[in-house]
Automatic annotation (TrEMBL):
Its EC number is 1.15.1.1. Keywords: Antioxidant, Zinc. GO terms for molecular function: copper ion binding; superoxide dismutase activity. It comes from Anopheles triannulatus. This is superoxide dismutase. It catalyses: 2 superoxide + 2 H(+) = H2O2 + O2. InterPro entries: SOD-like_Cu/Zn_dom_sf (IPR036423), SOD_Cu/Zn_/chaperone (IPR024134).
Protein backbone atom coordinates (compact mmCIF):
# COMPACT_ATOMS: atom_id res chain seq x y z
CA UNK A 1 0.00 0.00 0.00
CA UNK A 2 1.53 3.26 -1.10
CA UNK A 3 -0.62 5.76 0.80
CA UNK A 4 -1.68 4.74 4.29
CA UNK A 5 -3.34 6.54 7.22
CA UNK A 6 -2.40 10.10 8.00
CA UNK A 7 0.09 9.22 10.75
CA UNK A 8 0.84 11.20 13.90
CA UNK A 9 3.80 13.56 13.97
CA UNK A 10 5.02 16.21 16.38
CA UNK A 11 5.06 19.88 15.44
CA UNK A 12 6.59 22.77 17.35
CA UNK A 13 5.23 26.32 17.15
CA UNK A 14 6.47 29.61 18.54
CA UNK A 15 3.33 31.37 19.77
CA UNK A 16 2.72 34.86 21.12
CA UNK A 17 2.06 34.67 24.85
CA UNK A 18 -0.92 36.99 25.26
CA UNK A 19 -3.39 37.05 28.16
CA UNK A 20 -3.70 35.10 31.38
CA UNK A 21 -5.70 32.44 29.53
CA UNK A 22 -2.88 31.63 27.07
CA UNK A 23 -2.46 27.97 28.01
CA UNK A 24 -6.19 27.31 28.37
CA UNK A 25 -6.97 28.93 25.02
CA UNK A 26 -4.35 26.84 23.22
CA UNK A 27 -5.48 23.60 24.87
CA UNK A 28 -9.12 24.31 24.04
CA UNK A 29 -8.49 25.02 20.37
CA UNK A 30 -6.35 21.86 20.08
CA UNK A 31 -8.56 19.67 22.28
CA UNK A 32 -8.96 16.91 19.68
CA UNK A 33 -5.24 16.46 19.00
CA UNK A 34 -3.25 13.55 20.41
CA UNK A 35 -1.04 15.50 22.79
CA UNK A 36 -0.29 19.17 23.54
CA UNK A 37 2.66 20.46 25.58
CA UNK A 38 2.86 24.18 26.36
CA UNK A 39 5.85 26.10 27.67
CA UNK A 40 4.44 29.51 28.60
CA UNK A 41 7.85 30.94 29.49
CA UNK A 42 9.32 30.13 26.08
CA UNK A 43 6.10 30.67 24.13
CA UNK A 44 6.43 27.16 22.73
CA UNK A 45 3.60 24.79 21.80
CA UNK A 46 4.38 21.16 20.95
CA UNK A 47 1.56 19.23 19.28
CA UNK A 48 1.29 15.57 18.29
CA UNK A 49 -1.37 15.15 15.62
CA UNK A 50 -2.43 13.64 12.32
CA UNK A 51 -3.86 16.98 11.16
CA UNK A 52 -2.04 19.10 8.54
CA UNK A 53 0.30 21.67 10.07
CA UNK A 54 -1.63 24.49 8.39
CA UNK A 55 -4.80 23.46 10.23
CA UNK A 56 -2.98 23.54 13.59
CA UNK A 57 -1.52 26.93 12.69
CA UNK A 58 -4.97 28.24 11.74
CA UNK A 59 -6.49 27.09 15.02
CA UNK A 60 -3.76 28.68 17.13
CA UNK A 61 -4.04 32.00 15.31
CA UNK A 62 -7.84 31.87 15.68
CA UNK A 63 -7.22 32.49 19.41
CA UNK A 64 -5.79 35.91 18.50
CA UNK A 65 -2.13 34.92 18.87
CA UNK A 66 0.45 34.85 16.11
CA UNK A 67 2.21 31.55 15.50
CA UNK A 68 5.21 30.31 13.51
CA UNK A 69 6.06 26.68 12.77
CA UNK A 70 9.59 26.15 14.14
CA UNK A 71 9.97 22.37 14.12
CA UNK A 72 8.35 19.51 12.24
CA UNK A 73 8.75 15.85 13.20
CA UNK A 74 12.04 14.06 13.72
CA UNK A 75 14.01 13.60 10.52
CA UNK A 76 12.50 16.32 8.40
CA UNK A 77 12.80 17.85 4.94
CA UNK A 78 10.99 20.59 3.05
CA UNK A 79 10.52 21.79 -0.52
CA UNK A 80 9.58 25.37 -1.35
CA UNK A 81 7.65 24.78 -4.55
CA UNK A 82 8.06 28.09 -6.35
CA UNK A 83 10.39 27.56 -9.33
CA UNK A 84 9.55 27.23 -12.99
CA UNK A 85 6.12 28.74 -12.35
CA UNK A 86 6.42 32.03 -14.21
CA UNK A 87 3.45 31.17 -16.43
CA UNK A 88 1.35 29.27 -13.90
CA UNK A 89 1.86 31.06 -10.55
CA UNK A 90 1.44 27.68 -8.82
CA UNK A 91 3.36 27.66 -5.54
CA UNK A 92 3.41 26.10 -2.11
CA UNK A 93 5.32 24.18 0.54
CA UNK A 94 5.62 20.41 0.94
CA UNK A 95 7.15 18.87 4.07
CA UNK A 96 8.34 15.34 4.70
CA UNK A 97 9.13 13.71 8.03
CA UNK A 98 9.43 10.27 9.56
CA UNK A 99 6.28 8.97 11.22
CA UNK A 100 6.11 9.24 15.03
CA UNK A 101 4.29 5.93 15.25
CA UNK A 102 6.48 3.50 13.33
CA UNK A 103 9.37 5.45 11.86
CA UNK A 104 8.65 3.72 8.55
CA UNK A 105 7.85 5.71 5.45
CA UNK A 106 7.34 9.46 5.35
CA UNK A 107 4.50 11.74 6.36
CA UNK A 108 3.85 14.15 3.48
CA UNK A 109 2.24 17.42 4.55
CA UNK A 110 1.75 20.65 2.64
CA UNK A 111 -0.34 23.07 0.64
CA UNK A 112 -0.24 24.13 -3.00
CA UNK A 113 -1.98 27.31 -4.20
CA UNK A 114 -2.77 28.73 -7.63
CA UNK A 115 -4.35 25.58 -9.07
CA UNK A 116 -7.53 25.32 -11.10
CA UNK A 117 -10.60 24.67 -8.97
CA UNK A 118 -11.54 21.07 -8.14
CA UNK A 119 -9.04 19.38 -10.42
CA UNK A 120 -6.66 16.46 -10.00
CA UNK A 121 -2.89 16.96 -10.09
CA UNK A 122 0.26 14.93 -9.58
CA UNK A 123 2.59 15.47 -6.66
CA UNK A 124 5.83 14.03 -8.01
CA UNK A 125 9.19 13.49 -6.38
CA UNK A 126 11.86 13.64 -9.10
CA UNK A 127 15.28 12.05 -9.08
CA UNK A 128 17.42 15.16 -8.74
CA UNK A 129 17.29 18.74 -7.51
CA UNK A 130 18.73 20.46 -10.57
CA UNK A 131 16.44 23.42 -11.27
CA UNK A 132 18.94 25.26 -13.48
CA UNK A 133 16.42 24.94 -16.31
CA UNK A 134 13.36 25.23 -14.14
CA UNK A 135 11.24 22.10 -13.85
CA UNK A 136 12.68 20.63 -17.07
CA UNK A 137 16.02 19.59 -15.54
CA UNK A 138 14.93 17.63 -12.45
CA UNK A 139 15.26 14.17 -13.99
CA UNK A 140 12.78 11.33 -14.09
CA UNK A 141 9.91 10.73 -11.69
CA UNK A 142 11.02 8.89 -8.54
CA UNK A 143 7.56 8.70 -6.92
CA UNK A 144 4.12 10.02 -7.83
CA UNK A 145 0.84 10.57 -5.94
CA UNK A 146 -2.39 12.13 -7.15
CA UNK A 147 -3.76 15.11 -5.19
CA UNK A 148 -6.87 17.25 -5.66
CA UNK A 149 -7.55 20.98 -5.45
CA UNK A 150 -10.55 22.42 -3.64
CA UNK A 151 -13.06 25.07 -4.69
CA UNK A 152 -10.44 27.77 -3.99
CA UNK A 153 -7.75 26.18 -6.14
CA UNK A 154 -5.77 24.93 -3.14
CA UNK A 155 -4.52 21.40 -2.56
CA UNK A 156 -4.13 20.44 1.11
CA UNK A 157 -1.81 17.46 1.36
CA UNK A 158 -1.49 15.02 4.26
CA UNK A 159 -0.77 11.30 3.98
CA UNK A 160 1.83 8.66 4.78
CA UNK A 161 3.80 7.26 1.87
CA UNK A 162 5.40 4.03 3.04
CA UNK A 163 7.67 3.86 0.00
CA UNK A 164 9.59 7.03 0.89
CA UNK A 165 12.32 7.60 3.46
CA UNK A 166 13.23 11.15 4.44
CA UNK A 167 16.98 10.58 4.27
CA UNK A 168 16.63 9.43 0.67
CA UNK A 169 14.62 12.50 -0.37
CA UNK A 170 17.07 15.27 0.47
CA UNK A 171 18.57 16.68 -2.72
CA UNK A 172 15.73 15.48 -4.91
CA UNK A 173 12.87 17.73 -6.02
CA UNK A 174 9.10 18.08 -5.81
CA UNK A 175 7.12 18.85 -8.95
CA UNK A 176 3.43 19.71 -9.22
CA UNK A 177 2.17 18.51 -12.59
CA UNK A 178 -1.11 18.29 -14.42
CA UNK A 179 -2.64 14.82 -14.38
CA UNK A 180 -3.49 15.29 -18.07
CA UNK A 181 -1.95 17.30 -20.93
CA UNK A 182 1.17 15.09 -20.94
CA UNK A 183 1.72 15.80 -17.23
CA UNK A 184 2.79 19.38 -17.85
CA UNK A 185 5.02 20.59 -15.00
CA UNK A 186 3.56 23.62 -13.23
CA UNK A 187 5.99 24.34 -10.39
CA UNK A 188 8.89 22.70 -8.58
CA UNK A 189 11.35 23.01 -5.71
CA UNK A 190 14.39 21.31 -4.21
CA UNK A 191 13.93 19.08 -1.16
CA UNK A 192 16.26 20.29 1.60
CA UNK A 193 16.84 19.26 5.19
CA UNK A 194 14.56 21.10 7.63
CA UNK A 195 14.51 21.63 11.38
CA UNK A 196 12.84 18.93 13.43
CA UNK A 197 11.31 19.63 16.82
CA UNK A 198 13.68 21.31 19.31
CA UNK A 199 16.19 21.96 16.49
CA UNK A 200 15.24 25.51 15.56
CA UNK A 201 16.55 28.07 18.04
CA UNK A 202 16.37 30.95 15.57
CA UNK A 203 14.86 34.15 16.91
CA UNK A 204 16.29 36.34 14.15
CA UNK A 205 15.95 35.36 10.49
CA UNK A 206 19.38 34.98 8.92
CA UNK A 207 18.03 36.19 5.59
CA UNK A 208 17.60 39.83 6.57
CA UNK A 209 17.96 40.17 10.34
CA UNK A 210 14.28 40.60 11.19
CA UNK A 211 12.50 38.70 13.94
CA UNK A 212 10.50 35.57 13.17
CA UNK A 213 7.33 37.60 13.79
CA UNK A 214 8.33 40.27 11.27
CA UNK A 215 9.23 37.56 8.79
CA UNK A 216 5.80 36.01 9.29
CA UNK A 217 4.11 39.37 8.63
CA UNK A 218 6.21 39.90 5.50
CA UNK A 219 5.15 36.49 4.21
CA UNK A 220 1.46 37.18 4.83
CA UNK A 221 1.71 40.61 3.17
CA UNK A 222 3.38 39.03 0.16
CA UNK A 223 0.62 36.42 -0.11
CA UNK A 224 -2.05 39.12 0.09
CA UNK A 225 -0.36 41.15 -2.63
CA UNK A 226 -0.20 38.04 -4.79
CA UNK A 227 -3.91 37.33 -4.28
CA UNK A 228 -4.77 40.93 -5.18
CA UNK A 229 -2.63 40.63 -8.30
CA UNK A 230 -4.40 37.41 -9.29
CA UNK A 231 -7.83 38.98 -8.77
CA UNK A 232 -6.92 41.97 -10.91
CA UNK A 233 -6.10 39.63 -13.79
CA UNK A 234 -9.43 37.79 -13.56
Amino acid sequence: QKMTDKGNIKMEFAVQVLGDDFADAIRNTLADTENVEIDVKKGSVLVETSLPWLEIHRRIEATGRRAVLTGFGGQSAVAMVDHGNEKTNVRGVVRFCSSSASGRGAVVDGTIDGLAKEEKYLLNVHECGDISEGCASVGDVYDSVEVSSDSNGKATIRFVNDRLEVTDLIGRSVVIAESKNDHRRLSCGIIARAAGIFENYKKICACDGVTIWDERNKSIASEERQRESNQSVL
